[in-house]
Q: What sequence folds into this?
């Protein structure tokens, strides 16, 4: 059965590639927003299977990569404080800030724990009433409901030793910033299905109308991505600019109303500086007044020296001026292998920028699948 499924998938890929070749008549540049989609594209060589008229560029679709440097430094300061346990996802430990990374904070005696979910941090606070547990919350709208639920749970339990360093970011403001940039070359988007599962498609519909670009919601498997490209190309060729959902086995136009209500209760949109992109109106989340007491920056205001309120430059001490082009990669202006430091001074073991650190970062994808031996689909020319 496994091999039968693989044959069916390869046959569908062939059919989609034929349809794309039949549809395209001129050059088009399409951006996939999600880092998971980027890794799938590179892993299976989808960009190399597409006709040469189509250029795929990679967006800021990795929340780890765009977490502001000042919040990373605040996390490092908190982790080094006596009596504090900093909990976060594993990807965050190696992202460089101006104070080093969280591995360095751990080496210097900080208590940094890798957990699978924010609810694990809440349980840790319950079990350790003599310690203050900080959840370093990172992610797009996909993971924000889990953080909101954890905060509500902490309030219900009356936990005074739990707080959140909030670094959740919102995708539509980033899309708007890319389309508003004078250097923008993106003509169509593949939107991330997991974000739309939570938030629906309404915000993308406004962007499609305003900027006259097609936005196609798609998934992460090769067939999903190619189907998204096909629908995007058909719109571009016809001069249409609509939101299409080709991931309707998962995504509904209204999204998950319960998750949205939970987020609206606990969070409010705020302006946030994305690493490598700049300040985005409504690009991040902050606590509503009802839940502000769980804000780690308010709880430890003096100890953090206002780090998270003062934007800091991109890069770290190891990044010579002009060497790391992570900011251009995150905006889809350059590709990772355009960087002079790529696979030379910048590797997963010695990263200069966040996109080489994260498991969803574009630079990490290029290093894994283009620098060494890449996996690929076996597809003959139609």
A:
């Amino acid at each position: 059965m496994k091999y039968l499924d693989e044959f069916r998938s390869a046959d569908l890929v062939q059919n989609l590639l034929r349809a794309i070749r039949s549809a395209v008549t001129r050059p088009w540049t399409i951006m996939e927003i999600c880092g998971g989609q980027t890794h799938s594209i590179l892993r299976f060589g989808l960009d190399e299977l597409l006709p040469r008229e189509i250029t795929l560029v990679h967006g800021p679709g990795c929340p780890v990569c765009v977490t502001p440097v000042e919040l990373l430094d605040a996390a490092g300061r908190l982790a080094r404080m006596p009596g504090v346990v900093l909990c976060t996802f594993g990807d965050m430990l190696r992202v460089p800030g101006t104070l080093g990374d969280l591995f360095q904070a751990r080496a210097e005696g900080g208590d940094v724990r890798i957990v699978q979910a924010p609810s694990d941090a809440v349980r840790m606070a319950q079990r350790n009433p003599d310690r203050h547990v900080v959840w370093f919350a990172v992610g797009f709208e996909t993971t924000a409901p889990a953080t909101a639920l954890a905060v509500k749970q902490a309030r219900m339990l009356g936990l005074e030793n739990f707080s959140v360093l909030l670094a959740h970011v919102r995708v539509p403001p980033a899309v708007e910033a890319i389309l508003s940039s004078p250097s923008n070359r993106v003509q169509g988007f593949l939107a991330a299905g997991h974000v739309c599962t939570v938030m629906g498609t309404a915000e993308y519909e406004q962007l499609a109308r305003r900027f006259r670009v097609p936005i196609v919601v798609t998934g992460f498997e090769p067939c999903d991505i190619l189907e998204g490209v096909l629908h995007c190309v058909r719109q571009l060729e016809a001069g249409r600019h609509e939101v299409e959902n080709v991931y309707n086995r998962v995504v509904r136009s209204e999204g998950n109303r319960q998750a949205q209500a939970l987020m609206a209760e606990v969070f409010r949109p705020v302006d946030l500086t994305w690493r490598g992109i700049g300040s985005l109106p409504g690009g991040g989340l902050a606590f509503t007044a009802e839940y502000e007491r769980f804000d780690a920056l308010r709880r430890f205001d003096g100890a953090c020296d206002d780090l998270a309120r003062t934007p800091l430059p991109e890069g770290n001490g190891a990044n010579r001026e002009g060497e790391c082009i992570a900011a251009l990669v995150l905006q889809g202006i350059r590709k990772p292998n355009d960087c002079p430091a790529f696979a030379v001074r910048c590797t997963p073991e010695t990263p200069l920028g966040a996109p080489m650190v994260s498991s969803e970062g574009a630079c990490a994808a290029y290093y894994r699948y283009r620098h060494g031996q890449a996996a690929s689909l076996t597809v003959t020319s139609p």
Notes: Residues 2-23 form the longest helix (22 residues).
